[in-house]
Each structure stands twice: as C-alpha cells, then as structure tokens.
Design a protein that fits this description.
3-stranded mixed beta sheet; 7 helices; 3 strands
C-alpha cells in the first residue's frame, strides 16, 4: 500500500510541476494585450490598495517571485519584473495578493508567519532525530522525527489556503483595475491555477513522508 501511495504522490508532484512549467512557458511567450510589464502591474495594484509603502525589486532566479512581509517588499524575477507577458501579469498579481492579505490580516497568512521559525527548526531537528534513531535503533527518536514531519505537513496544509486565496485576490485585482483583456483572462486563470497546484504536490509529498516513517516504525516493532 505504501508503494501505491508513493506512486500516486510522484504522479501528483511530477504532474503539477510539468503543468506549471508547460503553462508558464506558454504564457511567458504570450504578450498581454494591455502591454503592461510585471513591475507596473504590481505597482498599480499596490497603489490602488493603499500599499504605496511596499517597494518592488528585481531578483534573479526562475520563478523566485515572493512577498517579503518583514521588509515590506515584493521581489519579482527578471522575466516577471520587466516583461509584458501573460505570465508576468499573473505572477505579479499573485504576489500582490499576498501583500493585500498581509494588510487585511488574513488569518492563514498570519498563522503561517507565526509558525515559520518553528518549522525551520523542526525541519532540521526532525531529520537529525530520524537519522540517529535509525542508526542507533532508538524508536522513540524516530517518533520525534515523525512528530516533526507532522509539523511540516501542518505548515503545508496552512500554505494551501494562503496561496489559493492570493491567486483569487490577484485575479480580482487585475479584473477590477482593468489590467487584463478578455482574451488574456482565461490564460491568467490557468497560470495562477498551475502555480497553486505545486503547493498541493508539496503537501502530498509531506504526507507521504509521514506515512513512510510511520510504516517504518511499525515494521521495526
């Protein structure tokens, strides 16, 4: 049964990543009908939501776009920051969705921020506990590792509504502010959906890791 779940998880993960890559490459080649680059899309949305204090920065990397709530900045990768593709329009709007969540005190975003330091710690501690537990045959240490993995799984589950909600907010903004044409709108939806599915895949992977460790302990017992 474990291998069945593993196979399903691999299919979900690879399928989600393939869908994202394919959709991004397609949308990245499509010039949006409004001719607006990602930086200007983001600036328009932010200014329209009384978020003029949030700055925009260009950052290296592939799909490395993110909202930094601590420093109040949205960082957009080069292909998003200075291009006028449908992909740039969509990703910029999504990141602005996070900034709007932050302004409105969106519950799941605040919850994710509050447990991030804990998750960063248990990601390392859990790995160490499992390795030592397996090497020294200490079952209790493996169970500590499993608890740590469950914390990571909880973090992934909390991330899902944050990402889907940011996409919904971003899509609403580009529609309300007339930043997207009728022809481009379906592709924006597809792009935002593809990005969200990668988080579904990450959650499935975290769940499989918990299952793997539990089955491992049960076999040892």
């Amino acid at each position: 049964m474990y291998y069945v779940f593993l196979g399903i998880t691999l299919l979900i993960t690879l399928g989600a990543q393939s869908y994202l890559d394919t959709t991004f490459k397609k949308c990245d080649k499509m010039k949006n009908k409004k001719g607006i680059i990602g930086k200007d899309v983001a600036r328009t949305i932010l200014d329209s939501n009384d978020l003029k204090h949030i700055s925009l920065e260009e950052t290296p990397g592939y799909l490395s776009d993110h909202y930094d709530s601590k420093n109040q900045v949205i960082r957009l990768s080069s292909s998003i920051y200075k291009e006028d593709s449908v992909a740039a329009l969509s990703v910029a709007a999504h990141e602005c969705g996070h900034a709007i969540q932050d302004k409105n005190g969106y519950f799941f975003l605040r919850l994710r921020h509050s447990i991030t330091p804990i998750v960063n710690f248990v990601s390392f501690a859990g790995y160490i506990a499992v390795m030592i537990g397996l090497f020294a045959a200490i079952t209790n240490l493996i169970w500590i590792g499993i608890i740590c993995e469950m914390v990571i799984l909880s973090f992934q589950l909390i991330t899902l509504p944050v990402e889907f909600n940011a996409s919904r907010r971003g899509l609403k903004q580009i529609q309300d502010l007339d930043l997207v044409s009728t022809e481009d709108l379906p592709y924006c939806r597809r792009m935002l959906k593809a990005a969200a599915l990668t988080y579904v895949a990450a959650t499935a992977t975290a769940a499989m890791e918990v299952l793997r460790l539990v089955l491992m302990v049960r076999r040892r017992d």
